[in-house]
Amino acid sequence: MTEEQYTTTRKKFQHLAREKRAQIEILLKQGLAKTKIAKAVGISRSTINDFQNPIVKSFKKLFS
Description:
With about 60 residues, this protein is mostly helical. It is built from 4 helices and no strands. The protein has helices at about 20-30, 35-40, 45-50, 55-60. The protein is globular, with a radius of gyration of 16 Å.
């Protein structure tokens, strides 16, 4: 296959803005479901799972 036949594009990932992180924290404390939070904030549910993961949190603290 030549390179022109590939249809996938590379995703560009972005860090969550502080406002979105704060919004997620508030909604999680209110007990809202992760799926509903993801839709309200406009991100994927897996991003919220990563956000809650203590290993990911500690890793992000090291590099922020």
